[in-house]
Amino acid sequence: MGFLDIRNVTKSYGQVEVLHRVDIAVEEGEFLVLVGPSGCGKSTLLNMIAGLEAITGGEIAIKNRVVNGVHPSKRNIAMVFQSYALYPNMTVGQNMTFGLEMHGVPKPERDKALASVAKLLQIDHLLDRKPGQLSGGQRQRVAMGRALVRNPDVFLFDEPLSNLDAKLRVDMRTEIKKLHHNLKTTIVYVTHDQIEAMTLSTRIAVMNKGFVQQLGTPKEIYDTPANVFVATFMGSPAMNIIPATVVMEGGQPHAAVTDAEGQVQHLRFSQPGLVAWAGKPILLGIRPEAITDPEGADRKSGNIVALKNRVTVTEPAGADTFVTMTLSGKDAIARMRADANVAAGQSFDFAVNMEKAVAFDPATEDRITA
Amino acid sequence: MSAVTQDTAVSTGRATRAFLYLILILFALFYLLPLYVMGVNSLKPLPEITGGNMMALPSTWTLDPWRSAWSTAQIGVEPTGLKPYFLNSILMVVPAVAISTIVGALNGYVLTKWRFRYDTWVFGLMLFSCFIPFQIVLIPMAVVLGKLGLAGSVPGLILVHVVYGIGFTTLYFRNYYASFPTELIRAAQIDGAGFFRIFWRILLPVSGPIAVVSVIWQFTNIWNDFLFGVSFGGTSQPMTVALNNLVQSSTGVKEYNVHFAGAILAALPTLFVYIVAGRYFVRGLMAGSVKG
Lengths: 370, 292
Prior knowledge:
The complex is a heterodimer of chains A (370) and B (292). Chain A has helices spanning 42-50, 92-102, 107-120, 136-149, 166-183, 194-200, 218-223, 228-233; strands at residues 4-13, 16-26, 31-35, 57-62, 65-66, 77-80, 154-158, 186-191, 203-208, 211-216, 240-249, 252-258, 264-268, 281-286, 291-292, 304-316, 320-327, 330-337, 347-353, 358-360. Chain A has 370 residues and is α+β, with helices and mostly antiparallel strands. In chain A, strands 6-7-8-3-9-10 form a six-stranded mixed beta sheet, sandwiched between helices. A five-stranded antiparallel beta sheet of chain A has the order 13-12-11-14-20. Chain A is elongated. Chain B has 13 helices and no strands. Chain B has helices at 14-41, 46-50, 64-72, 83-113, 119-128, 134-148, 154-178, 182-191, 195-203, 208-224, 227-232, 239-247, 256-290. With 292 residues, chain B is mostly helical. In chain B, 72% of the residues lie in helices and 0% in strands. Chain A binds chain B through residues 50-52, 71-74, 77-79, 81-83, 85-89, 98-99, 102-103, 146, and chain B through 181, 183-184, 186-193, 197, 201-202, 205-206.
């Protein structure tokens, strides 16, 4: 039993089912991020938790109380919207206390709650201004303040940072994380930005086409993605997915891939269980940072495999250099130190950290657990 | 290096400017001409008008035509002047404008923020009412008013104008509210505000420009309406009908100066509304028509 229980929830519009049997139990104080491409159903799920959209099947419970059909204002939730949704005709202070006023909280208490939240978010000097007179970051704070003042059981965030410029977005991200750390509130947060999901969450639900593809901690999601979709959606640049065949060599399973010259090269797996796939095709998944120059390879790894291949393109990005090569006919990206000595068009000795490699079944695209 | 020149799309030479202003002033004078004629002739004794030269300023200034038009002129069979009819018009216009604007705002709110099945059809039908000519509904309207017992009364006229105006006011408010972010309504719902509270506290305070449009439009139309007034006015006819009765009387000498004064009196309220609220009119009309 979680603090917020989403049990077998489905959503249909007419005949079309857009959300299929979602089952998530959120613990108290957890920061759950729903992440996925647009149209994956993440906002629909959030709106159903908020009560802004009806639940077609299953139930949602907050603190063990089933809230299906309960009015949004009676669920003890607060929501921060993408556009902030500040009431343009009211001052910041009135915006923040409007909910309390509607719930019949007397003025002295409202003022007290307002003062403490305004101090927490450092917006006390803005209370008499109208939303139109605020900058994007300030509006964002006010929107969060309006949610905080209510002291709800669950906070819902609907892509709150996507209207901010890049720098401010990073700042506010840190701010939200701090806030969660200090207040230990339960948060459900919707975003399409996988970096936001990774940095903020205690758990991530990766969604696609109305299904929860994987639910887990950021590390689980990143290191052991459940399928090719999760593997390529999370992480930037995306995980390299390379067609390969499992071959046996010295009693160990290896991935056989072809390099740019058409030569077959063998990369030894760290998972002995892949023996079962000997002779069969698989999809080999390797994160860009697991392919480096030999000096930059992870010293703690017990399975660094050398791979000689021609470099197609190098892209220096300041802190890192991204190096592209061709493996089994596909582009594979390696992430190297900025000062790695690598040039386009030349042959280079790559070091592949096969401890971090994963294998997917080409038919189902699910990860092979071995 | 040559000096920086101000090359803009519009040539703003001195001569061009002068020419533009000259044309604009000529147009303004032309448009003001009728008002001038009415004004000067309403301040002359009758013989000065019948003696010719409508354009000249009065040689003897007098306010008698105004007094006569307001309180003593023969309207139909009664020598009451326009005063009681002016009052009728006010009693009719103010509630009719207020009610149709409020109902239009509520309709717009429901049609954009509380969408229901076939709501676009409902809106389409309301829009259709804007295109129905007055003449077509005269007889059915007379029947309805008769059945309601409102025939020939001010409340009857109010009802007629409200029904006729709702199509327009709904159109204005619906288009205006269409561009109002729905997330705000959702936020207010989560905050615990109900249907009317959201309307009153969130939507109405930002509806100023479109409310002005609605008020001006409704006020002018209702005040200037003649057909409904003459058909359903009965004993409480509005200003327009009285003015017609004053001007069109076929007995006695035609007192043009009194007619001019009466016509100005009949036009004053709409003129007043335009001057007070006119600058919001264009602003609101643009906001309501272009967006959404």
